[in-house]
């Protein structure tokens, strides 16, 4: 190991001894140790740059002081004679065993760092003749016996002063108490001013952080560093999030190393936001703010009044809900929401943001101290700049134009912040620090989205499954979070998107968009199924099909005999493979438009032309508006007021 005395560095190491035969006591040995003069200079004994001491098991008066009994055999070789001091009247030799015992400790002053040590035992055929043992601890001088064979294991070619990282555990997660262990050499026996510097996932080009907070370091030895991997550091202020990739280990003397490409890179799957109580860091917990297992999100009318924008928000909420179980619910619209810790979670457009910022989330935090300190997110507020061209697509099928931004990605990213997720360095992750955009068109398949088994979804799931245990029973002003038994469980291979039209008349058409995750086989048929009036799919009605292996829109038709109601849903299913997709997420109102006999969505002269020929006729048919089996003036009295009406 490398040790320090001010600016002076030393290489310290042990020489071990063992035997393969039991019952032997160490008597004497001769060692010739060769070294690199470019590293240590020459004639180390004469220059006073070498110190040799006894190992603990040999530290008795029986043995000579090795520090006064070695020479410069050559300018680059120490000759060390170590053994019994025969001037003693009584001997208490050390029993050798089949396991290593420290025979000597050697300390060499380093003249030049960055050079190889090139330490090796030499002249083995000569020095082995001077290796002796006895069969008792107090045997006389004349009782010494030579070993049959002496083996010297070397060399040691480490670069001096070089910090070496051999391995570390990866992947890992930040901010949840996971221990990151780094193994290697020359870290220093104590940390002192030593530090580990990760890349900053929150900054452009991901520069190395200045270090970590003191509380993040668990232990530091010359060969191992243990860190409670944080999600954020506070020592330099600002927002500093340790991220994936190369990192730097710097020891107390200022020597450092960057992990190289020959080692699998560090991967941080996800990081959870912290809350500060004083100077101590605590993981944030999500809250059952709406009493149904999550948060109710209210939209500004700049989003809610536009179906394509609102649809993207609904899809983002639905994807997070399906992957993690956090029950995000759409609330009532409003304008001019404040950015405040007020138990109201909001999403709104804003005229401008700082610099190139597309959106931001104000994560509000409350803390309490009961049986332990708990930090909770009571609400969060998302603001999105108007200063961009946005693609509003919930089907996953549209290419992203050059220079445009995918609105769904932005909202999904910001909701992730609202659930306590921080930025990570993974260009395919929803929680990457910037939205995916390009000077050229981005293919639909290359756009970012929330996926099962990703760091994003695993991080949200961790928040849901750990927050109840941390919050329940500790803070009287917080309701414990509960895991929602979501019907989707995961983002399904078929995701029925939100509909542009949620009010439709029976007999009229309905466009149903959907997206897919996965591969569908040739001959597959996607089918739209209509629920009953209460949203149940226990008995479904097929209302449209699409023969395809790709996502898109299906033109469906509401059957003319559909009962009017306000709780209908639709979903898309496939035939090859057989998969049942999610429903559209919002209730559909089906209305009966009286007098629309040709089901074109409007009561007009075409309908009258169908009605008139049957006037004063017996008929059990849709023209019999009062259902008395005869078309007469009573039916006309119902038809006439409906003339000119149309389906919304």
Structural summary, described in words:
This protein is mainly beta and 648 residues long. It has five domains: 2-146, Immunoglobulin-like, CATH 2.60.40; 164-270, Immunoglobulins (Immunoglobulin-like, Sandwich); 286-471, Collagenase (Catalytic Domain), CATH 3.40.390; 494-591, Immunoglobulin-like (Sandwich); 605-642, no CATH class. The chain is 12% helix and 32% strand. Strands 3, 5, 6, 8, 9 and 10 form a six-stranded antiparallel sheet that branches. The chain has a five-stranded mixed sheet with strand order 23-22-24-28-25. A hairpin with a 2-residue loop joins strand 1 and strand 2. Helix 4 (307-324) crosses helix 5. It is elongated. Residues 469-491 have low confidence and may be disordered.
SS elements, strand count? 42
- Could you list the spans in which at least 5 consecutive residues all have pLDDT below 50? 469-491
Distance between the termini: 80 Å
| Classification by helices and strands | mainly beta
CATH domain class name of the largest domain: Alpha Beta
User: Helical percent range?
Assistant: 10-25%
Q: How many separate structural domains?
A: 5
- CATH superfamily name of the largest domain? Collagenase (Catalytic Domain)
How many helices? The count is 8
Proportion of residues in β-strands:
25-35%
What summary fits the major beta sheet? 6 strands, antiparallel
Q: Measured on Cα atoms, how large is the radius of gyration?
A: 39 Å
């Amino acid at each position: 190991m490398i040790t320090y005395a001010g600016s002076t560095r030393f290489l310290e190491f042990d020489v071990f001894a063992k035997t393969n035969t039991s019952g032997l006591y160490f008597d004497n040995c001769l060692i010739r140790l060769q070294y690199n003069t470019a590293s240590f200079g020459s004639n180390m004994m004469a220059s006073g740059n070498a110190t040799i001491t006894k190992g603990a098991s040999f530290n008795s008066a029986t043995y000579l002081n090795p520090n006064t009994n070695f020479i410069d055999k050559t300018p680059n070789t120490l000759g060390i004679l170590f053994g019994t001091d025969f001037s003693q009247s009584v001997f208490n030799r050390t029993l050798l065993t089949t396991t290593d015992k420290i025979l000597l400790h050697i300390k060499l002053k380093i003249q030049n760092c960055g050079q190889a040590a090139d330490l090796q035992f030499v002249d083995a055929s000569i020095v082995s003749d001077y290796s002796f043992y006895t069969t008792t601890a107090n045997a006389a001088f004349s009782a010494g016996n030579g070993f049959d064979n002496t083996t010297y294991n070397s060399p040691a070619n480490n670069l001096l002063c070089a910090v070496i990282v051999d391995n570390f555990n990866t992947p890992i997660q930040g901010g949840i108490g996971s221990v990151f262990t780094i193994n290697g050499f020359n870290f220093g026996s104590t940390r002192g001013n030593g530090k580990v510097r990760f890349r900053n996932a929150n900054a452009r080009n991901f520069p190395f952080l200045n270090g970590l907070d003191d509380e993040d370091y668990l232990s530091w030895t010359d060969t191992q560093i243990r860190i409670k991997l944080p999600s954020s550091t506070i020592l330099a202020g600002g927002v500093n999030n340790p991220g994936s990739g190369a990192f730097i280990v710097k020891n107390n003397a200022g020597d450092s190393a960057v992990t190289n490409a020959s080692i699998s890179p560090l991967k941080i799957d996800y990081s959870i936001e912290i809350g500060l109580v004083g100077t101590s860091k605590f993981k944030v917990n999500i809250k059952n703010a709406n009493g149904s297992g999550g948060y109710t999100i209210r939209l500004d009318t700049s989003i809610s009044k536009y179906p394509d924008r609102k649809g993207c928000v609904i899809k983002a909420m639905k994807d997070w809900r399906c992957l993690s179980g956090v029950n995000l619910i759409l609330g009532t619209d409003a304008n001019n929401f404040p950015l405040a810790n007020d138990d109201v979670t909001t999403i709104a457009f804003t005229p401008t943001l700082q610099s190139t910022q597309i959106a931001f989330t104000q994560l509000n935090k409350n803390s309490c101290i009961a049986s332990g300190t708990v930090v909770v997110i009571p609400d969060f507020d998302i603001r999105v700049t108007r200063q961009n061209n946005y693609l509003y697509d919930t089907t996953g099928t549209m290419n992203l134009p050059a220079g445009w931004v995918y609105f769904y990605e932005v909202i999904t990213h910001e909701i992730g912040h609202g659930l306590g997720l921080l930025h990570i360095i993974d260009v395919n992750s929803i929680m990457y620090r910037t939205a995916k955009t390009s000077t050229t068109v981005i293919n639909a398949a290359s756009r970012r989205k929330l996926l099962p088994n990703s760091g994003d979804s695993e991080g949200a799931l961790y928040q849901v499954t750990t927050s109840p245990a941390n919050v329940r029973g500790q803070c009287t002003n917080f309701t414990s979070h509960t895991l929602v038994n979501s019907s989707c469980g995961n983002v399904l291979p078929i995701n029925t998107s939100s509909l542009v039209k949620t009010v439709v008349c029976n007999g009229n058409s309905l466009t149903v968009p959907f997206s897919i995750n996965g591969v569908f086989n040739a001959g597959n048929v996607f089918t739209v199924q209509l629920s009953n009036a209460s949203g149940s799919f226990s008995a479904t009605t097929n209302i449209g099909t699409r023969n395809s292996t790709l996502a898109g829109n299906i033109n469906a038709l509401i059957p003319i005999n559909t009962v009017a109601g306000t709780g209908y849903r639709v979903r898309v299913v496939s035939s090859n493979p057989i998969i049942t997709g999610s429903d559209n997420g919002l209730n559909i109102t089906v209305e009966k438009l009286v007098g629309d006999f040709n089901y074109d969505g409007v009561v007009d002269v075409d309908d009258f032309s169908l009605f008139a020929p049957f006037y004063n006729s017996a008929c059990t048919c849709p023209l019999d508006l009062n259902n008395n089996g005869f078309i007469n003036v009573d039916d006309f009295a119902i038809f006439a007021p409906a003339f000119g009406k149309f389906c919304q």
